[in-house]
Structure prediction request, 234 residues.
Amino acid sequence: MINETLKKDFYDSIINEFKSVKYNMKELPNEKKDPFDFYDVRDLFLIYVNWRKRFIGRGSREVFYSNELKEKLSKTKKLKKIVSKLEYKFKNYENLTPFLTKEIVNSPHKPNKSKEEFEKLSESKRKKEMLVKRDKDLLLNFFNIHHLHLEPNYSNKATKGITFTAKEGNKRGEDLLYIKIYKDKVYFIDINKHNLYDKEILKTFQKNWEYLLEESHVTPTKHISIFPPLDKPY
Prediction:
């Protein structure tokens, strides 16, 4: 009874939040009945946490720069201006959602299998099925490393209620700022292209703040979990 109540609560919560970003419910499996009725409670929770984890809550955070990023920014005033703006936002409780990937509203959850196909999979294959899709960010899921888009302007068209940053018109550039949030601090690691499992990002973080990896029991060669705990509640 408790399990069914919990499942219903998670189900209602997920559906309501997906609807809040105008998510196309037809993309969910078995949409004519209950879209998540064939997931167990744990899987429902992972779907929800995986999505919410991609957001960054407002706060007043101390900002730290890696040596590599400092050197890079000293050579480009354009990127330095945008990164400085992000630093200000992190320190002053400002909204960072416009700098996130558009997939947070376009792909809260992307099932590849039908209900029948999913139920036939082994537990290990179910995990794999839920991993590599547009609704997953491997650096975030493995190492709690977010990426922010670095564009000087905002889009001329809102995406499901959110006006994301844009290079020109509604298009985004390739430059991303990789960061790690830890308690009331945020670490600006480096600027790189869109590679969601870039080992250079991990090496740079390790070189500058190895003690944080030790505190988290994480190294670039050791995956802690597909879905590690949240650093901060949203």
Strands lie at 62-65, 145-149, 153-154, 165-166, 176-182, 185-192. The longest helix spans residues 2-20. The CA atoms of residues 182 and 231 lie 6 Å apart.
